[in-house]
């Protein structure tokens, strides 16, 4: 998977058509897996032990960005898995750090849409590529250690 991601990253950087958004789709599947793993962990160990509302929101916003669909504030707050006031506080911090942008919906002026900034999207691309590299190294290490045994 790492080789595929590197190829798609190169395609995306050079502007050749095959890698455009394919890398985002690959990484969005990793983000979905991470969300599912986090939900399974909370189900097994309890909700109160593990809480990272900002990360939960960012993962969901990354997937939404890849899908081309900004999320309404209400959906982002729900994705955080935390009380509304806590989630709103985290949203403010994310906005101050330049990771999210809030825009009024063109269809309904009462709705505020939230999406990742280019900066945050780029950070996610790097994060997931690094994560794949670490997994690849771990697998290589497993192969070597199994030969020793």
TrEMBL record:
UniProt xrefs under SUPFAM superfamilies: Winged helix' DNA-binding domain (SSF46785)
Q: Which domain of life is it from?
A: Bacteria
- The protein's name is MarR family transcriptional regulator
What high-level taxonomic lineage is stated for the organism? Bacteria, Pseudomonadati, Pseudomonadota, Alphaproteobacteria, Sphingomonadales
């Amino acid at each position: 998977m790492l080789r595929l991601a590197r190829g798609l990253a190169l395609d995306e950087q050079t502007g050749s058509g095959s890698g455009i958004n394919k890398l985002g789709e690959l990484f969005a599947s990793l983000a979905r897996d991470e969300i599912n793993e986090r939900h399974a962990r909370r189900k097994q160990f309890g909700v109160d032990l593990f809480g990272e509302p900002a990360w939960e929101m960012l993962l969901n916003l990354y997937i939404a960005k890849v899908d081309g669909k900004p999320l309404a504030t209400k959906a982002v707050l729900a994705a955080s898995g935390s009380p509304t006031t806590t989630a709103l506080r985290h949203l403010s911090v994310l906005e101050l750090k330049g990771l999210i942008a809030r825009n009024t919906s063109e269809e309904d002026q009462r709705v505020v849409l939230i999406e990742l900034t280019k900066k945050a999207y780029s950070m996610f691309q790097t994060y997931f590529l690094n994560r794949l590299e670490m997994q690849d190294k771990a697998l290589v290490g497993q192969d070597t250690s199994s030969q020793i045994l």
